[in-house]
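Worked example

This section walks through a single chain of length 266. The input is the sequence exactly as stored; nothing has been trimmed or padded.
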Amino acid sequence: MVVLDFPHRWQRTRLYGILLAAALGLLLVAACSSPTPTPTPTPSPTPPPTPSAPTPSIAVQDQEVTSNSVVIAQAAIDKPGWIEIHAEAAQGGLDPATDLGHVHIDAGRHTNVTVPLSQPVSSGQTLYAMLHYDQPADGTFTFAPGNSDDPPVVVSEQVVVQPFTVTTSQASEPREVRVVLRGLRFQPDTLQVRAGETIRLVIENQDASVFHTFTVEGLESVIDFPVGGGQTVQHEVTIPESASGNLVLFCKPHRGAGMVGTFSVQ
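Given that input, the structure is written out below as C-alpha cells.
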C-alpha cells in the first residue's frame, strides 16, 4: 500500500481536484459510449377491407301495377346504371325498342326499387326488367337499338334481364292525360295511349283569346273537342280497339300554321 504524504495543504487540494476531474471524465466517456435505444415503431392501423363489387343481377316478381309503377325486388350492379322496363314484342320475347320506364341506380345492391311507368300496361301483360350501364356517365338515359350509349349489362355472355307478368285493377280510375294549348303548340306534342284504354283527357287552352280544337285524325268521332280561349275542358275517352300507330293530333283552325302533334296508339 502506498501512502502519499503531502506536507503542504495546497498540494493535497490540487491532487483532489485532479482525481475528481479524472472521475468525471470517465463518467462522460461511459455515457457517450452507451448505445442510444432504438424507438419501437408504432404499427400503422390496418385499413378495413374494400368490399368487392357485386355481380350484376336483377330479381322481380309478378305483381299488380299500383300508382302506375312497378317494383324491382332486388338489383345489383358494379357500376352506376339504369333499370329499364321493356314491353314484349308482338312475336314474343323482349322488344328492345320499347321504353316503358327507367330509373337510375348507383353501384351496389338495391331492394324494392320503384320504376314509374311512362305508358299504360294491360292486365296479364309480360314486361322485362333489364339492367343498363350509365355510359357515358351523364345521368341521361339514351339507350336505343343500334346505339352504343347506356348498353345492356352482360354477365357470362348473357344480358341481365328478367320477365314478369303484371295485372291491373279493373276498378282503377282512368289515367289522366293533361295537355296545354299555348302559342299554337300542343304541350306535350306527343301522347301515348293503348288501344282499349280509357283516359281522362284534360285540355287547358292558355291562349286567352284564341279558339282551338283538340282533334285526332282518324278518330274524329271519338276525339274532336273544341276549347275556347282561356278554357280548360275534361273528357273521358276510350281508345278504340281498332286504333293503332302514330296518328296526327291537330287543331282545326291552326293546322296550316303548324299546330300539330302525335297521338301514338299501341
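What to look for: The mean pLDDT is 86.
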